[in-house]
Amino acid sequence: VGSRGPNSHWTGYGPTTQTYGGLLHLWDYDDDDAPATNGTIFPDHAAGRLCALAGIAALIGRDARGGSTHSEVAQVEVVVNMIAEQLLKESLIPGSTGPVGNRHDQRAPRGPFRCTGEEQWVVISVENDEQWDSLVNAMGSPDWATDAKLATVEGRVANAEKLNENVAEWVLQHSRSEVFDLLQSVGVPCGPMIIGMEMLEDPHLDARGWTLDIDQPGVGYMKLEGPAWVSEHMGGPITFPSPDLAGHTREIAQEVLKMDDDMIDDFIERGILEV
Questions:
Q1: What structural domains does the chain harbor?
Q2: Which residues pair with 221 in a beta bridge?
């Protein structure tokens, strides 16, 4: 929660900042009494990236003005930043924000839809009348889609629950790739829900250099998350395996403890140090 303020003495980590920052309240279905919680470690990764950005900004400021600066990133403020739009809405219309699940006040149909196969899903989000017409044509123009109530964005949003049910019936008859390829080809926002292993094997991410291979002693080759950006004029990220236990004993003894080689060898032989 930061180094200043009345709660700066609190101990916490990612999941607790999700609750204190208001995210977990919103990250839920609209008809659930209790928060759904989640299995992520957010905002750890986001905070780390913002720390790097703050460090770069501080260096630029030093070069421009001279002198040093202290930069701080509080995880709870990273969380609050993610819901800035909802906070603005709440400040203007008290009581207007809350859990909405997969609904959207300006888009329908919208949400995850199950396809054929085990745990195969796509996400569809129709924003305007043009996309709606394309979706209707892609589904073969079913009779229910001709209802006048579905002719406008407002009408579709007002009837979103039944609309999603009808779309779900159509999606369930097809594979994930069939739905994704078809809707993408006609301009309907649609994406596949992929699991972790699929991300590591995704040809698009691989072509952009997102996945990194590293040879971890004792484990073998592993795939790691790559950089969050691509640059033409920057080298690749510096990667190396995690150190073995006692893997840097000699270096630490020499550089930190200022021990000479004879003393280090003696301590290793006597079991005081391990390598």
A1: 14-92 (no CATH), 110-193 (3.30.1540.10), 195-229 (no CATH), 243-275 (no CATH)
A2: 215
Query: Is residue 182 within 8 Å of 138, Cβ to Cβ?
Result: yes
Q: In what order do the strands lie in the sheet with 190-193?
A: 110-114, 121-125, 190-193
Tell me how far apart the alpha carbons of residues 165 and 158 are, in angstroms, rounded to a whole number. 14
Give first-to-last CA distance, the chain, whole Å.
40
DSSP conformation class of 89: H
* Amino acid sitting at position 116: T
pLDDT in tens, the chain (275 residues): 889 999 999 888 888 888 888 888 888 887 767 777 777 778 888 898 899 999 999 999 999 988 888 899 999 999 999 899 999 999 999 998 888 888 898 999 999 999 999 999 999 999 999 999 999 999 999 999 999 999 999 999 999 999 999 999 999 999 999 999 999 999 999 999 998 888 888 888 888 888 888 999 888 998 888 877 778 887 777 788 888 889 899 999 999 999 999 999 999 999 999 99
Secondary-structure breakdown of the chain: helix, strand, coil percentages, each rounded to the nearest 5: 45, 10, 45
Find out whether 14 and 41 touch, Cβ atoms under 8 Å: yes
CA-based max dimension of the chain: 89
Question: Please, are residues 164 and 144 in contact by the beta-carbon 8 Å criterion?
Answer: no
